[in-house]
């Protein structure tokens, strides 16, 4: 259990008691350092990053971010997400402990990037570490771990319902004249923009065996270097009008793009094994960052509610009952969301990612949708400025909104949860049969005619 004054430290105060109890001294130290980093190096520098981006033409990583990445690495704040399986490279945090760090990182949109803990890098690094051979790891994984380059994940397609990845149609064929060369043709949406010089590789999921009777064995995952001839970016996709530079979201064309067959990860037809291993922790990280970001929106609403210069009808905005109610409701929702995600992280720690499936889906369904609603309320309390660039609220809302779709739409997760829940009806029916049996026994004992009773024991 945390002792005073740690329990009241601003980095730790909102962490539920059952989690505080499980944090190692090392984790407490990391959480406090990440808090200090975000509060002093990142949040105050947000306008400077925007100014540097505007000056550099948007597609170069601002020098301030490069400087912070080098500094974070030196201070041992790099790659905090890495699980223990990474040996000496891992800080050794559990999912639960790292989640507490991720929430703090979420307070500034790009803070995670300064610590090499951002999406899609974290998922890509875990994927490469888990499924690449030694040679591939040296070539593709190590530069990412060292923060020398960055990567993108490319699965979604404009002409397919990509939440059902068995439909992915981008084709990989072997060159008939050179079986050691793969030829790729198709169109992809998303995956960071190749216009950014820091980006070097794409992890592509595409169809290599469309006639395989097993739809889960038709796809392969391959590495496509960004400078591959025949691979081009058509445009950057804006998200609710934001270009999300300098990372962006590209739309891509593969036109007879050729890569060596040695770029296949794990083996032909094994993309689904890989996809299974990739998503659990990444979804939890997104959710915790969203909670951190929403806490910040909530703080802005509190500032506005108590601003003595803003007094409609001579009263502070926070003096109106409707706003007092609103603030209470936002607080309750935020604390509930944190419990849900930390429970998912802990379930993964104790029982593994597969057993955590329900808790991960629960987080992915509840957090982005509720965060977007809370931020919307914060904008409402802020008034007209809340919808402008005077506040980060519109960007925060956009982030929450897009996570309802990114990494799988919430409807698909609800569908899965609902289907699993329907399977629980069998045992419930058996239990109800037992109620009936016992009810008839009791009717006999107490001389009640069960034929004339309405309903019986339900
Ligand atoms: C900001 C952002 C970043 C992204 N980054 C990446 C990236 O880096 N790499 C990448 O490959 N992709 C990325 N994506 C794409 C994202 O993963 C896909 O958009 C998502 O998986 C859904 O696929 P889709 O767009 O083809 O929608 P579809 O699969 O066509 O689904 C559309 C809608 O159909 C409904 N639906 C689908 N399935 C079900 C179901 N089972 N039950 C009920 N309704 C359902 C839902 O309403 C759903 O929203 C990103 C998306 C966003 C918004």
Automatic annotation (TrEMBL):
Keyword hit for ATP-binding: no
Gene Ontology CC terms, in alphabetical order: cytoplasm
Chain ranges of the Acyl-CoA dehydrogenase/oxidase C-terminal domain: 272-420
Cofactor list: FAD
Keyword Transit peptide annotated: no
Keywords assigned by UniProt, alphabetized: FAD, Flavoprotein, Oxidoreductase
GO molecular function: acyl-CoA dehydrogenase activity; flavin adenine dinucleotide binding
Domain called Acyl-CoA dehydrogenase/oxidase N-terminal: residue spans: 58-148
Domain Acyl-CoA oxidase/dehydrogenase middle: 152-248
GO BP terms, alphabetized: fatty acid beta-oxidation using acyl-CoA dehydrogenase
Family designation: Belongs to the acyl-CoA dehydrogenase family.
Name of this chain's protein: Acyl-CoA dehydrogenase family member 11
Organism: Friedmanniomyces simplex
């Amino acid at each position: 259990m945390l002792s005073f004054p740690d329990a009241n430290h601003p980095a730790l105060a909102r962490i539920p008691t059952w989690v505080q109890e499980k944090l190692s001294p090392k984790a407490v130290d990391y959480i406090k350092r990440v808090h200090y980093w975000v509060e002093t190096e990142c949040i105050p520098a947000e306008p400077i990053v925007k100014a540097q981006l505007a000056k550099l033409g948007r597609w170069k990583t601002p020098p301030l971010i490069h400087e912070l990445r080098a500094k974070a690495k030196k201070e041992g704040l790099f790659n905090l997400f890495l699980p223990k399986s990474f040996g000496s490279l891992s800080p050794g945090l559990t999912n639960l402990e790292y989640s507490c760090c991720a929430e703090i990182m979420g307070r500034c949109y790009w803070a995670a990037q300064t610590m090499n803990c951002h999406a899609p890098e974290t998922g890509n690094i875990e994927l490469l570490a888990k499924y690449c051979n030694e040679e591939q790891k040296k070539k593709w994984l190590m530069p990412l771990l060292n923060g020398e380059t960055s990567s993108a994940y490319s699965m979604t397609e404009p002409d397919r319902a990509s939440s059902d990845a068995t439909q992915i149609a981008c084709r990989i064929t072997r060159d008939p004249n050179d079986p050691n060369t793969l030829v790729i043709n198709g169109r992809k949406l998303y995956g960071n923009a190749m216009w950014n010089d820091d980006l070097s590789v794409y992890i592509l999921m595409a169809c290599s065996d469309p006639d395989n009777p097993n739809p889960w064995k038709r796809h392969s995952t391959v590495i496509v270097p960004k400078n591959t001839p025949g691979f081009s970016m058509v445009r950057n996709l804006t998200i609710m009008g934001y270009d999300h530079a300098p990372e962006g979201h590209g739309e891509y064309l593969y036109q007879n793009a050729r890569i060596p067959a040695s770029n296949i990860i794990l083996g032909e037809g094994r993309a689904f094994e890989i996809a299974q291993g990739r998503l659990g922790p990444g979804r939890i990280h997104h959710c915790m960052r969203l909670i951190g970001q929403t806490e910040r929106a909530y703080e802005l609403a509190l500032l506005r509610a108590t601003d003595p210069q803003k007094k409609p009808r001579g009263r502070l905005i926070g003096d109106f009952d409707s706003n007092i109610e609103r603030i209470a409701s936002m607080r309750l929702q935020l604390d509930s969301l944190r419990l849900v995600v930390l429970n998912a992280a802990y379930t993964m720690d104790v029982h593994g990612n597969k057993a955590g499936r329900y808790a991960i889906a629960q987080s992915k369904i509840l957090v982005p949708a509720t965060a977007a609603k809370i931020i919307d309320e914060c904008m409402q309390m802020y008034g007209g400025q809340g919808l402008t660039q005077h506040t980060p609220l519109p960007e925060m809302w956009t982030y929450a909104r897009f996570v309802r779709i990114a990494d799988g739409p919430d409807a698909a997760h609800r569908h899965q949860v609902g289907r699993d829940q329907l399977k629980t009806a069998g045992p419930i029916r058996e239990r109800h049969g037992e109620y009936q049996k016992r009810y008839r026994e009791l009717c006999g004992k107490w001389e009640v005619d069960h034929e004339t009773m309405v309903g019986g024991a339900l």
